[in-house]
Amino acid sequence: MPAPAAPALLPAKLSASGYNSLIACPYQFFATRMLGLNAIDELSDLPEKRDYGDWLHQILAQYHATVSAGQVPLAQRAALLASVSEQIFRQELARNAAALGYYVRWQKVMPAYLHWAAEREEQGWQFVIGEQQMERDLSWPGGAIRLHGRVDRIDEHADGTRAVLDYKTKAVQALRDRFKQTEDHQLPFYGLLSTTPMSAGHYVALELTGSKTGDVAAPDYALWQDTLEHRIIEQMHAISTGAALPANGIDTVCQYCDVRGLCRKGAWA
Ligand code: SF4
Questions:
Q1: What is the pTM of this model?
Q2: N or C: which end of the chain has fewer CB within 10 A?
């Protein structure tokens, strides 16, 4: 099993997906984030699910910014969301008619999303910012790394506490299952990007379960952020002083790994 050490190659910046890669397999992190090797994207003429996710992020950022800037009454919000959605999808449909399937899919989700958003507002939460690029430095004696990422949304409660929200084009149960994956630290990572403390982190489901959508709160969020901050500092410090980066990914990670040809798993295990 290869297990290189490369203290001089510690990256200056770290994203949530980069950190998840380190946890899933240190060698994968070495190859992709320290050597900078990446697979060439396969070009496709058809829109893909990640494009759909990008469009919904744009729509929701624009919709919530308009609602909060103009105090749009509840009765007018369905029309506003439909209009913002139509504007974004019209651009995409002009490029590729295959986006229509995704537009129809989103139109089915919109009423459930509005219902969920209204309930959240009744509980005292207000949208603050959306699609925000954020970064924060973590340091240790002799070194530092800049955490960075684009946060989908931050809400503030009437009591002054704040929460990070991350939109996913998945149903609620799939998001609950995500918390069982020990290599997923996306939500606490986003919490660490803010200098204002975040009291909660939620994945928001943009797919229906029956006729509803919803959100899933990260368990022990404050503790998870604190633990993660210390672990990142420890691990980055260790890499910068020569810790080995073994190719110890498990099969479910290796199955989708872009650098399998480099670690040559199969030749030695
Ligand atoms: S194939 Fe598996 S062991 Fe090899 S780098 Fe990728 S995740 Fe790690």
A1: 0.93
A2: C
